[in-house]
Amino acid sequence: MATPPTDQQLADIEARATAATPGPWGVYQFGGDSLIEIAAELEDTGTGYRARRTVARFDEEPMDNDPAHAEWTAEEDWAQVQADAAFVAAAREDVPALLAEVRRLRQQRAFLLDQLAKKDAASGAGDQALTGFLTAEQRAPYGDCGHDDYHAPHEWADRPGTWCPGHAVTSGSTTPTTAGETR
How far, in Å, CA of 160 to CA of 101, rounded? Predict the structure, then answer.
């Protein structure tokens, strides 16, 4: 797991995002599908494309010294160029959204910690478990199922902040268990 960014790192990321050409950015291919451009405010006119500004250009023969790609066909190499261009173009909208989410979650965490601090210190195992969760720098997956805090493999993974209903904290314990299981 990567180390969470510091406030300064978030500020640096935000400064780079703010300095970049405003979006949204789009991707289009031209030159007999041998070039890809990322452009700001890209519009398909029906007879071509119009954009406010070209942001980047990718060509069909990128420098690629990765030994894992030694056996790639031209089609596989071009597919990677297309995927890289799509990722870069999406970053224009993704980075600000992710920055906002990190800041929202940090505010929420600070609020919850403040509320817990106001409660009686002997308030019970549930508060202790919540305090432990909120103060942990990193949390490893737990339970035999390998689920982590928001359980990406589950159908509710696209609902941020949703805790897995398959885990619960048993009375007097801070160890989450799978539903129906006791420890």
Answer: 10
